[in-house]
Every structure is written in C-alpha cells, then in structure tokens.
C-alpha cells in the first residue's frame, strides 16, 4: 500500500469532522487499502479449488444459471418458497454479461463467480479497516486488516458464493454507519444511520437470519439514541418497508405468485426445526468447536483484545450471535461468518498493543545502547499466526475435497467437445456442482434428497445399500454416457459397472481423511 505524502488527506464525504481530522494520522489512503485487498482477494479466489458446502453452488450459482440460460436445477427449497431470488439474481446478471461478451466458456464459467465475489469481499475488508480505524485508530486498523487477510477461514470461505459471504460484507459496511456501534467521542455523520438501516434490511432480505445481528444493533441504538420516535417511525419502518417491498416484487416476478420468503424461512428453520433434517450439534458446538476453529490460533489474541479494549458493544454482539445460533439444532460454520471479522478487530487491538509496547521498549534500548538480537513479542506473534494459518488456508483451499470440483470441471470441458451425452451421479445428493459448472444442457441425474417426513430418500437408500439401489435404479434409466461416484461406493459397484459396459476414464483425488461419512478418497468418472 502506498503511503500518503506529507500526511495530507482529503475529507471523505461520509466522515464526521472528528473522524476526518483523525484520519490525517493514517499513513494509507483508503483507495490503496481497497486495491491491496482487491488484488489479494482475486488471488484468493483463483486459489480456491475445493468443495465446501452444496449451498455455494446449488442455492446461488445453479439458480442464477437457470435464470440466465434457461436450464439449471432448483432444489426443493425453491418450491417451498424459503429462498429469495435477490442473491442469485446478482450472479444471473453477471452470467448474462458473460454471455453477451461471448465469454461463457468452461474456464471462465468456473472461475468468474468467485472473482466477482472477491470484489464484494474486498469491500468487506475495506470497511473492516474503516470500522477499526473509527473505533480504535490506525494502529488497530492495520493489524485488524492483517488478521482478516491472514485468517485461514476467511481465506477459505469469504470468496465462496454463499449468501453468508455477501451477508458478511453487508454486516461490516452496515456496522460502520450505525451510530450506536461507535464511541461517544467519535459520533457518526448525520444521516449515516439511514445507510446503516438500508444495509441491515438488505442483509436480512438476502439472508433472513441476519436479523439476529441487526436486532442487537437496533436495540442498542434504541437504548442510546435521544430521538427514538424518529428512529422507529421516520427511518426504521419506511426503509425496512421499501427494501422488503422491492424484495417481494422480485420474488413475485420469479415465483409467479406472492411469496413472503422471510416468513416461510422463519416457519421452516425456527418454528418447525426443518434445518435439523441436515444434522444437529450440541448447544455448545459454536463455543467449543465451530467458532473456535474459525478463529483458530487468533483466539488468544482475540480474548486478550476483548479484555484490554473493554469495548463491550462489539464483544457483546459476538456473544449475542453465537448464543442465539446455539439455540438452533442445525449448526454450520458459515452461519456465524459475519461475526468472525468482528472478532478479528479485537485481534488487531491486541497486536497493536504489542506493537506499541515493542516500540517503547525499542526506544529505551536505543537510548541505553542495548542491542537485542532476539525477535520481539510482536514478531513472534506474527510468525506464529502466519505459520499456523497459511498452511491451513492453502490445504483447505487447494487440496481437501477438491475431487468433486475437478470431476465437474473435466466433464464441462469434455461436454464442450461433444464427448458427453448424459451423466448419472451415484453419490450422496448435491455432492458436486451441477449445470452452473457443466454449462451444457445435457440430461443429468443425481439422487434426490428432498425431506420426506422421516422416509428415506434416494440418497439415503443408496448409501445404505449401493448395489441393490443401483440395480433397481438401472431398470428405469436411459443408459448414461458417464457415471460419477466416490471410490467408497465404487468398491461395491465394480461388478455392476462392468456388467453395464462402463470403464473408468478418470480418477480425481478428493480427500485424505473422512468428514462426516466413510473416507471418500477419490472421485471416479466412468464412461460407456
């Protein structure tokens, strides 16, 4: 990042006078911060070559591909109206642009969505820096940004096309504009609360569970503000109604009927515990495993920063979000992604304190002519964080569970050459990307896993007895040109595949260790 010359700065139109005055002390321009983050996130996007969770493809890109190109699979959630088209529409417009420029070719269709997401991620990084700067100054801001870029889970997940990723960016930008988040010494500029409300409403429209975050911030604002009636009746209700109305109109257009997605989402996930179908965890999982793994080796620095800063507004938000999500049976890492950057702000506070302490000690040693060849505490901390997070980030992004993505990338290129006629996936449902990666309107079939009131799904029955299921399944299929399966099921289906004249054509490494099933070491592609 390029430093400002002579410490000069130009007042940003959204900054208060106090903030603009303090900004002069910052050695970096916001433009340079953003460009640095953008370059890093674009490289980050290109390095992500693994499969993490089906929703990255099936609830975003697959839906967008159907909107843009007329074919793509809609999962049962879209039939039940518990998903809004707002998030996929962003990628659909991007796909349309690629098609208009005649860039909708396999290599571009595979990489472009994550590159688009990298722009939003860079915006999130920038506002993490701005929020940290407003709250604690440049010393904390630069170390908070370092922590954001160095954290393994942010590297692994932030650039994926989850609605959670965009929700995280909107959360960071929104918190920057909310007056209640700031200290009384650094008040937000006039009108910023409206921007904060609009961003909070947009986050909730994209992902209704984002309301967990914004209820906390809204209650905090209601407690601290002196114009409560104006906040509720002039800002909150009108802005929320406009965003909800626009979202409902979009969903009305796409669903071809009036659908209130937030209400359906609430009924399914909270009132009927529908999410429990996908597995449950103990109430303490986020505290003892989930969030602690995400923060990883930054955890002791985060705790130290919370204690030293005594900034309970933000630490309270982290505890509030983790606590409410702990009530739900179904838990996932990405659900609490929006509060991970907030925890990294406290890491920045802790590292800045070490930096300041080392600077004081260094000045004393220079004045007394004492030379010390040992690395400082700050240097040891940085080395420890980088040495523990970089290998983890690269392993999870480049190696672990990459086979399903590699297999679909291969089939996409083969289909473009006319070598693929139809595909059957004999594996757990949604284990691979689908039409959004293949980008070819060929017949494909995967094993259905739509919840069915306790009855085993196709995917369940296949995993219980692969051979019997495959024999029955083949009685009614149109003979596919290709079959994709994991090696763990291939062992049982060798004779079945040979009897139907299939031969192995490619084998892709997938994982070194099992996650939630038997070890799926490789993904195998068979052709007739």
Q: Care to count the β-strands?
A: 5
**Which of globular, elongated, flat, extended, rod-shaped describes the shape?**
globular
The profile of the biggest β sheet is:
5 strands, mixed
Major sheet: arrangement of strands: 2-1-3-5-4
Helix content: 55-70%
EC number: 2.4.1.-
Transmembrane segments: 152-177, 197-217, 229-250, 284-304, 311-329, 335-354, 380-398
GO molecular function: alpha-1,2-mannosyltransferase activity
InterPro entries: GPI_mannosylTrfase
Question: How would you summarize this macromolecular structure in one to three sentences?
Answer:
The chain is built from 23 helices and five strands.
Describe this structure in words.
Strand 1 (423-425), helix 20 (435-438) and strand 2 form a beta-alpha-beta unit. Residues 2-23 have low confidence and may be disordered. It contains 23 helices and five strands. The N and C termini lie far apart (55 Å). The chain is mainly alpha-helical and 528 residues long. The chain has helices at residues 17-23, 30-47, 55-69, 76-80, 86-100, 106-136, 138-150, 152-157, 163-177, 192-206, 211-224, 228-255, 261-271, 285-295, 299-309, 312-327, 340-367, 377-398, 403-416, 435-438, 458-464, 466-474, 487-499; strands at 423-425, 444-446, 482-486, 503-509, 522-527. Helices cover 62% and strands 5% of the residues. The chain has a five-stranded mixed β-sheet with strand order 2-1-3-5-4. It is globular, with a radius of gyration of 25 Å. The chain has two domains: 27-349, no CATH class; 403-527.
């Amino acid at each position: 990042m390029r430093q400002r010359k002579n410490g000069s700065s130009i007042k940003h139109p959204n900054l208060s006078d106090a903030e603009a005055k303090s900004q002069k002390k910052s050695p970096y321009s916001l433009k340079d911060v953003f460009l640095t983050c953008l370059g890093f996130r674009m490289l980050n996007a290109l390095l992500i070559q693994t499969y993490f969770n089906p929703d990255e493809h099936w609830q975003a890109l697959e839906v967008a591909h159907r909107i843009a190109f007329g074919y793509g699979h809609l999962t049962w959630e879209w039939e039940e109206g518990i998903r809004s088209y707002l998030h996929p529409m962003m990628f659909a417009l991007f796909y349309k642009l690629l098609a208009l420029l005649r860039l909708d070719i396999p290599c571009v269709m595979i990489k472009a969505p994550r590159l688009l997401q990298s722009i939003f991620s860079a915006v999130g990084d920038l506002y993490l820096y701005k929020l940290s700067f407003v709250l604690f100054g440049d010393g904390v801001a630069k170390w908070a940004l370092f922590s954001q870029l160095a954290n393994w889970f942010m590297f692994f997940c932030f650039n994926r096309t989850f609605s959670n990723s965009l929700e995280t960016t909107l959360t960071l930008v929104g918190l920057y504009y909310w007056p209640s988040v700031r200290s009384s010494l650094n008040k937000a500029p006039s009108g910023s609360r409206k921007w904060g409300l609009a961003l909070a409403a947009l986050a909730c429209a994209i992902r209704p569970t984002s309301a967990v975050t914004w209820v906390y911030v809204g209650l905090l604002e209601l407690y601290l503000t002196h114009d409560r009636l104006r906040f509720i009746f002039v800002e909150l209700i009108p802005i929320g109604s406009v965003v909800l109305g626009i979202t409902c109109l979009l969903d009305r257009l796409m669903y071809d009927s009036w659908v209130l997605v937030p209400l359906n989402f609430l009924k399914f996930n909270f009132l009927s515990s529908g999410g429990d179908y996908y597995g449950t965890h103990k109430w303490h999982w986020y505290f003892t495993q989930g969030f602690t793994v995400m923060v990883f080796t930054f955890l002791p620095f985060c705790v130290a920063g919370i204690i030293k800063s005594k900034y309970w507004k933000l630490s309270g938000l982290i505890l509030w979000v983790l606590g409410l999500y702990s009530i739900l049976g179904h838990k996932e890492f990405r659900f609490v992604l929006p509060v991970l950057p907030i925890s990294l702000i406290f890491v920045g506070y802790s590292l800045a304190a070490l930096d300041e302490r080392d600077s004081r000690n260094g000045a004393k040693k220079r004045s007394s002519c004492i030379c010390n060849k040992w690395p400082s505490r700050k240097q040891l901390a940085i080395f420890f964080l980088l040495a523990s997070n970089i290998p983890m980030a690269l392993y999870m992004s480049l190696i672990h569970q990459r086979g399903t993505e590699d297999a679909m990338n291969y089939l996409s290129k083969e289909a473009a050459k006319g070598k693929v006629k139809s595909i059957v996936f004999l594996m757990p449902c949604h284990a691979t990307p689908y039409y959004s990666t293949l980008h070819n309107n060929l017949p494909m079939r995967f094993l259905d896993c739509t919840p069915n009131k306790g009855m085993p799904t196709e995917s369940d029955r296949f995993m219980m007895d692969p051979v019997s299921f495959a024999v029955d399944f083949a009685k009614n299929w149109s003979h596919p040109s290709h079959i994709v399966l994991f090696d763990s099921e291939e062992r049982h289906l060798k004779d079945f595949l040979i009897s139907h004249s299939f031969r192995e054509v490619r084998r892709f490494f997938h994982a070194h260790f099992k996650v939630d099933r038997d070890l799926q070491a490789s993904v195998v592609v068979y052709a007739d």
